[in-house]
Amino acid sequence: MGKRALITGITGQDGSFLSEFLLNKGYEVHGIIRRSSVDFRERIAHLEGKPGFHLHFADLGDSMSIVKVVGQVQPDEIYNLAAQSHVQVSFDAPEFTADVDAVGVLRILEAVRACHLEKRCRIYQASTSELYGKVEAVPQNEETPFHPYSPYAVAKLYGYWIVKEYREAYGMYCCSGILFNHESERRGETFVTRKITLAAARIAQGLQDRLLLGNLSSKRDWGYARDYVECMWLMLQQERPDDYVIATGVQHTVREFADLAFRHVGITLRWEGEGADEKGICTAGPDRLVGKILVAVSPDFYRPTDVVNLLGDPSKARRELGWDPARTSFEQLVALMAEADMAKVAAEGAAAKVRTNLAEYLEKGIVK
Ligand code: NAP
Ligand code: G4F
């Protein structure tokens, strides 16, 4: 019999990649989903109905629902990926963020204890480089002091410490992966990387005029999500539980990401001005775009406090987990995201054209 895993946040970017990874390893995969007015779960639609893949309704804000699912599934491993994961949104919905991202972690740990699984079930907690926040050292490793700098980060800090506490107090096998930003063609569309690759594709195909961004000088250590889910699994296969930084060790600015993404869709940008006046002007590409401002700054995307200098040191993960942080380069990551969005936008454009034609044919009585 293969192992049984329970994934919270299975409909998210990481949940979908982790599900594929564990199914390939022969796991029975169970996931928690929330009721939504839209029934289509885009990132896992290709897995639904597959043998060994099961979904359960529950919510990280509802203790009883968690206890029920944990008791029913009797998992060998739990991957707690569910969260209100958008930093900017955490300023708008701080209490909800705290409930899910902080107390939600406690609910998982307590559900495992309530079901008497604390000696058998291993738990992975999706922690984050946002804990370093207003950074006190660069690069950041497992010893770097935390200085959370958003309601999201403060909530995640509680999750980090409560996992450590349950490990020490009850001897549970639970650990936190301190993951730096990881992106993919499945990344949510309002995170900066995906916002950029989608906009670049739409601008290249004549469907959008301009991209508005916030802090272009913010620096991130961006990796590929598909590579990172392997680390989550590796952390639960060790002799002893521990916390690990997962990062590439390479840093770029938002501006550099945008520059490269636009180049991938055939547009060269020149950057002019500073701060809120900075602009990305097209210097080469389709004639209709040359000389136009394609990227501008909007203070609407500034945050009350912003984390601006994240760079991870993945030495411990490389040494102890045998994980290769250089599997997908920054250039490969930008290329794969830009290419996926070029294809997606082209397909949407074709579908829209069919709908327009159909409307016209119906109006003219060509189609009845
Ligand atoms: P994501 O795409 O935003 O997915 C979040 C998932 O959490 C979704 O499945 C969402 O369900 C679920 N969720 C939210 N609130 C819930 C609740 N109350 N009950 C049950 N499920 C709930 O996030 P991601 O990028 O995959 O990230 C996965 C985890 O890693 C998150 O905890 C995030 O904070 C953390 N993390 C991410 C990164 C990164 O760069 N991606 C880096 C460090 C840490 P719906 O689909 O129903 O909304
Ligand atoms: O893409 P972001 O929204 O990601 P952020 O805030 O780093 O959070 C992500 O990574 C964390 C790991 O460090 C996760 F814990 C978290 O769940 C999430 O997955 O923003 C990246 C940077 C920020 O400094 C932001 O100010 O890009 C800057 N930025 C500039 N313009 C923008 C924009 N961010 C967004 N979302 N949208 C903009 O227009």
User: What is the number of beta strands?
Assistant: 15
Ligand species: NADP nicotinamide-adenine-dinucleotide phosphate, ligand G4F
The percent range for strand residues is 15-25%
Distance between the termini: 56 Å
Radius of gyration: 22 Å
Instruction: Indicate the structural class.
Output: alpha/beta
- Assign an overall shape: globular
If you had to describe this structure to a student in words, what would you say it looks like?
The chain is of the alpha/beta class. The radius of gyration is 22 Å and the shape is globular. Helix content is 40%, strand content 17%. The mean pLDDT is 96. The strands form four sheets. It has a seven-stranded parallel sheet, with helices on both faces. A four-stranded mixed sheet has the order 8-15-14-13, covered by helices on one side. The longest helix has 35 residues, at 330-364. Residues 8-15, 32, 34, 36, 59-61, 81-85, 100, 126, 128, 179, 181-182, 188 line the site of NADP nicotinamide-adenine-dinucleotide phosphate. NADP nicotinamide-adenine-dinucleotide phosphate (NAP) is lined by residues 8-15, 32, 34, 36, 59-61, 81-85, 100, 126, 128, 179, 181-182, 188.
Keywords:
alpha/beta; seven-stranded parallel β-sheet; four-stranded mixed β-sheet; binds NADP nicotinamide-adenine-dinucleotide phosphate; binds ligand G4F
Quick summary:
The protein has 368 residues and is α/β, with parallel strands linked by helices.
